[in-house]
Amino acid sequence: MSTEIEERPSDRFARRVTERCRRDRGQRAALRRGLRRPPEQAHTMHAVVAPLLSASVTQEHEYAHYAVAAMIAASVRDRPNVEPTDVEPTNVTDAEQVAAADADITPHNRPNLGQSLAWAVCRPGLGRRAMNRANAEKRLHLLVRQGYPGVYQHLAGVVRHLATVDVQVSWGQLLDDLCQWRYRRDQVAKRWLQSYYRTLHEADRRAEQQKDNPSLEEPA
């Protein structure tokens, strides 16, 4: 029996957008210009995003896909001397591996935005200054109070802040959450908040253990 896990549609969309952004600066710029714009005003994005979506996609799902595509474009960095065939499929895998180590879950469970914000506080990228815990909490609580489509105006700033501290975002998970936002916001908000506080609690617990027993080392 095959153990291969079928790629989720949201992860496939994120992978394709990421590949295009890394392969073509023009397409990346076209997507980035749509940041914080609804699909009706994101004229430069259609050439890239429209072929990846069904013509029957609902309005709220369309908005989510366009918003995530623009945020991916704003987060992708230049990778000099990398040929298109060498482009990594997506950065979701790295985030999944970290999630599995931090939360003792399977690699197929993707981290949500709450967990990513907690990482920004307790484990930013190498050489990056951690996000202030009070500011991270404030941003998250402000975000989960937003309705549709107002959430997109605040979300872009949160994601940009995560990029400054070199924290990965699971774009596929974020896309799935945003597709539910209009009618299931409370459930999505609960998951983000719970993940945020659980991740910080676990980080604090580990820090306290190390403080009490300095000989303990973090697992590789």
Low-pLDDT stretches are: 79-107
What is the CA-CA span between the terminal residues? 31 Å
Counting DSSP H or I runs of 4 or more residues, the number of helices is 9
Cα-atom Rg, whole angstroms?
Answer: 18 Å
Mean pLDDT: 85
Secondary structure category:
mainly alpha
Report on the biggest sheet.
none
Q: H/E element string?
A: HHHHHHHHH
**Helix percent band:** 55-70%
Oligomeric status = single chain
Envelope shape: globular
Strand residues, percent: under 5%
Question: What is the number of E strands?
Answer: 0
Q: How would you characterize the overall build of this protein?
A:
With 220 residues, the chain is mainly alpha-helical. Helix content is 61%, strand content 0%. The chain has 9 helices and no strands. It has helices at 9-23, 25-32, 46-49, 59-75, 92-103, 113-122, 133-144, 151-164, 171-212. α1 (9-23) crosses α4 (59-75). The longest helix is centred in the C-terminal third of the chain and has 42 residues, at 171-212. Mean pLDDT is 85; it is low at 79-107.
Pick out its properties:
220 residues, mainly alpha, 9 helices, 61% helix, 0% strand, globular
Write a brief structural summary.
The protein is mostly helical and 220 residues long.
Layout of secondary structure:
Layout: H1 9-23, H2 25-32, H3 46-49, H4 59-75, H5 92-103, H6 113-122, H7 133-144, H8 151-164, H9 171-212
Helix pairs in contact: 1-2, 1-4, 1-9, 2-4, 4-8, 4-9, 6-7, 6-9, 7-8, 7-9
